[in-house]
Specification:
Protein Binding, DinI Protein, Chain A; two-stranded parallel sheet; 4 helices; single chain; rod-shaped
């Protein structure tokens, strides 16, 4: 085998290897998802507080409705915790509280609207 044939063989092998890496990266590799996201927990608690206050302040609300609103307010923390865990698994990311993020949070996806819809707020 002469030098020219060996060089061609090396180049062809390098091109095949590069092509296989590109195909793997585009086809089989898991998609890159955002690894971090933010959540405004204070806003969710404020919205729940307004929701409960609206029921309690309503003039035509009976005691059963008021008791139900208070019960939902008591269970809100547990429900919020479960929803945050499921949301974290859905997006495969670590969720940070927006107040704890020192840099501009526009670089990170905000999951507050999605969780607000799930909680019915």
């Amino acid at each position: 085998m002469n030098t020219r044939a060996a060089l061609i063989l090396v180049l062809v092998n390098a091109m095949i290897a590069a092509l296989m890496l590109v195909v793997y990266a585009l086809w089989w590799a898991p998609p890159r998802t955002p690894r971090l996201a933010t959540l405004d927990v204070a806003e969710l608690y404020r919205l729940k507080e307004f929701q409960v206050a609206a029921v309690l302040m309503k003039h035509d609300a009976n005691e059963a409705e008021r008791a139900e609103a208070l019960k939902r307010a008591e269970n809100f923390g547990v429900e919020l915790s479960h929803q945050i865990q499921s949301l974290s698994q859905e997006c495969a990311c670590l969720i940070l509280v927006q107040a704890a993020v020192a840099s501009p949070s526009s670089a990170l996806p905000d999951l507050t609207p999605a969780l607000r819809r799930k909680l019915g707020l």
